[in-house]
Write a structure and sequence with these properties.
It is a single chain. By secondary structure, the protein is mainly β. Helices cover about 5% and strands about 50% of the residues. It has 1 helix and 15 strands. A 6-stranded antiparallel beta sheet has the order 3-4-5-12-7-10. It is globular, with a radius of gyration of 18 Å.
Length: about 160
């Protein structure tokens, strides 16, 4: 990797990790922000092969994201809409609920490469509309549950009856 003063990296020089989950999700990626010592922003580089996505359809309650399409084309799912995306597009994904859920799909016949930038919040709640899950993340806490599995706020806090 070509790094100047540990603050500059060229994406062409980075060693990417490979991720694959079932037949739907796959990417070659690197978390650049961590490598360069970023404190308040997370930034990553992903190359997604044809027919794949790097993550499920989801929204964030605390972290805002931005994507910049470096190479290729695909489809953006955003809330209830879909649209074609291509090299040079900048995508804004503010915080919110299902109306800001997003996913980038590579439905082309060539690799799709993008940079993602996000605010790094100490705690986050993500919603996954397709699978009806909610994730709570903060520090070492990483908890996923189905939205149907709600507990009463007072359960196990006070005697029943």
């Amino acid at each position: 990797m070509s790094v100047i003063n540990s603050k500059v990296a060229n994406i062409g020089d980075l060693k990417l990790e490979h991720f694959k989950k079932a037949d739907k999700f796959e990417s070659h990626f690197i978390r650049i922000g961590q490598l360069l010592g970023a404190k308040d922003l997370g930034y990553s580089y992903d190359i997604v092969p044809p027919g794949k996505s790097s993550c499920p359809f989801h929204s964030h309650r605390a972290e805002e994201e931005m994507f910049f399409i470096v190479k290729g084309s695909g489809t953006l799912r955003y809330g209830d809409e879909t649209r074609k995306i291509r090299e040079g597009d900048v995508i804004c994904c503010p915080t919110g609920g299902p109306e800001t859920a997003h996913q980038i799909l590579n439905d082309s016949d060539a690799d799709l490469a993008y940079l993602s930038v996000s605010t790094m919040m100490p705690a986050e709640v993500c919603e996954y509309p397709d699978s009806k899950k909610v994730g709570a993340f903060g520090g070492s806490l990483r908890h996923m549950t189905h939205t149907d599995d709600a507990l009463d706020y007072w359960k196990d806090e006070v005697p029943s009856g």
